[in-house]
Write a structure and sequence with these properties.
Elements: H1 2-20, H2 25-43, E1 54-57, H3 71-85, H4 87-93, E2 100-104, H5 111-121, E3 125-130, H6 141-159, E4 164-170, H7 187-200, E5 209-216, H8 224-227, E6 234-237, H9 243-253, H10 265-271, H11 277-293, H12 301-313, H13 323-343, E7 348-352, E8 362-365, H14 376-397, H15 405-420, H16 436-460, H17 462-475, E9 477-479, H18 480-491
Parallel strand pairs: 2-5, 2-6, 3-4, 4-5
Antiparallel strand pairs: 1-3, 7-8, 7-9
Helix pairs in contact: 6-7, 9-10, 9-11, 11-12, 13-14, 13-17, 14-15, 14-16, 15-16
Length: about 500
């Protein structure tokens, strides 16, 4: 309203001067220049009177019941939120309220959803901002925005007659990185210092109880002063979901989707080891899109299987390898599949020569039970599976190709894990004191032993390998169940597939 009044007065003065016969060109020029400076400064945030972030009233959209696979994180978070939800209990027991909660974990695990659910749990005004929004090239702007952020959160809570306000800063490593990183510019340090001051100023007797929550997947980048007790008092780890968690997430994301009778969410949860909540949401969405493309009324299991491949590797490619390359790809992937079935029966989920993303073909394994510790036998079996593709090419075609480059890298990483964890013939070693030449020789021994093992296996199975390759070239894709049927048929009667 004030700006409109000033504009009207200025226009009236100009008209009056024109009527009196004055030359108003200089005044118009100065006015235009002033407006340009004003709008430039306003766009850069220099004249911003407040910093509201993106304000939403949480509790209407997301609750803890809408988040699957994070039971431990939800329990720890809800316990921490009870400190601002029940202030009388805090005072009775003499508890200092928590000033900050930091959510850490891999991308896509639901940290932002947990923050939204937390706002609903406490019936708080929810203010969400991103760490990058505080950083400007102009000194002092970031610190001012931090002050306005906390002030605005309190004002919004009072306006809506709520006693709690929750501020959520996503990607806080941008705002809260270690001080001294940018010696030529102190804007980052000033902004972080202001955040530290605001967190120290949170009190229980405020008219509005403010809790700061933040999320990051790079906790190693944060300044130690931000992580000490009294600032971020709680660090809640939001991990990738286990099998039961993935099953729960799949149930949540398929509630509004028509599923065919053959759909087994338990099988999908088993085959999606390492998927985050975001991956699983994308999986169910892609399966629904595939069903729509094929004009199906319900989503079938094959749609989900296809969606897993798409999420992992990307969309199918139009380009097709020449016949010689296609045959080599089929031999390579069949080698992987045969050794995988030997070291762990039932481990192959799918085998295909359909190009996707950067892969001309692939063999997908079923993870089985979630495992977080590995023995040397398990690691050696996985190395054997990685090397089987190149060995199969060499055995059937007489040479190898560049298609095995990624397999070699993965096999080398697994061999390094054997050495680094004291499972090689060297025993427990100090990696810093281990000569590079000796380390290389040990790694070569591990890889060479598994390559010899794979070669002896495939020699005994060359007829089976060629038969599977022929079928794969005809059908382009073979499921794990179909592959095991083929192997059982080819091995009977009395054909012993072993090594």
């Amino acid at each position: 309203m004030f700006k409109e009044i000033c504009l009207g007065v200025a226009l009236a003065v100009v008209v009056f001067l024109v009527i009196l016969g004055y030359d108003v060109t200089p005044l118009l020029f100065l006015g235009a220049a002033g407006l340009g400076v004003y709008y430039f400064a306003h766009s850069r945030g220099l004249l911003t009177r407040s910093f509201n972030g993106h304000l939403v009233v949480a509790g209407q959209q997301v609750s803890f019941g809408d988040i699957g696979g994070q039971a431990t994180a939800i329990q720890e978070l809800s316990e921490a939120l009870d400190f601002i939800k029940n202030p009388q209990r805090i005072q009775q027991l003499g508890i200092r309220p928590l000033r900050g909660i930091l959510l850490t974990g891999p991308p896509g695990t639901g940290k932002t959803m947990l923050a939204k659910a937390a706002a609903g749990y406490t019936d708080a005004v929810f203010t969400v901002v991103n760490g990058s929004e505080f950083i400007e090239m102009y000194a002092g702007v970031g610190a001012q925005r931090v002050r306005r952020l906390f002030q605005s959160a309190r004002e919004k809570a009072l306006k809506e007659n709520k006693g709690n306000a929750l501020i959520f800063i996503d990607e806080i490593e941008i705002l809260g990185g270690r001080r001294g990183r940018t010696a030529s510019h102190l804007e980052y340090d000033q902004t972080l210092n202001q955040l530290l001051v605001e967190m120290d100023g949170l009190k229980t007797d405020d008219g509005v109880r403010v809790l700061l929550m933040a999320a990051t997947n790079r906790v190693d980048m944060l300044d130690p002063a931000l992580l000490r007790p009294g600032r971020f008092d709680r660090q809640v780890r939001v991990e990738l979901p286990d099998k039961e968690g993935r099953l729960e997430i799949l149930r949540l994301h398929t509630r509004n989707k028509p599923l065919a009778e053959d759909v087994s969410l338990d099988v999908l949860a088993k085959e999606t080891f390492g998927f985050s909540g975001a991956h699983l949401e994308s999986l169910t969405n892609e399966a629904a899109i595939l069903a729509m493309r094929q004009r199906c009324q319900v989503i079938e299991q094959r749609h989900f299987q296809e969606a897993i491949d798409k999420v992992l590797l990307g969309e199918r490619l139009e380009r097709q390898p020449v016949q010689a390359e296609l045959q080599r790809v089929a031999i390579h992937e069949t080698g992987h599949a045969l050794i995988s079935e030997l070291v762990k029966p039932g481990s192959v989920s799918a085998l295909t020569v359909t190009p996707r993303g950067q892969a001309l073909g692939y063999m997908r394994q079923v993870a089985g039970e979630d495992a977080y510790m590995f023995t040397r036998d398990y690691l050696e079996d996985q190395i054997a599976v990685m090397l089987a593709g190149a060995v199969a090419e060499e055995q059937v075609l007489g040479n190898r190709s560049t298609g095995a480059a990624n397999d070699y890298q993965q096999a080398m990483r697994l061999a390094e894990k054997i050495v680094d964890n004291g499972m090689s013939r060297l025993g427990v070693v100090s990696l810093e004191c281990l000569p590079g030449g000796l380390r290389y020789r040990i790694l070569s021994e591990i890889l060479g032993a598994q390559e010899g093992r794979v070669r002896s296996c495939l020699v005994n199975m060359q007829a089976v390998l060629c038969s599977v390759v022929t079928i794969l070239l005809e059908q382009e894709k073979i499921s794990g169940e179909k592959l095991r049927e083929i192997l059982f048929t080819l091995s009977a009667p009395g054909y012993k597939i072993c090594c």
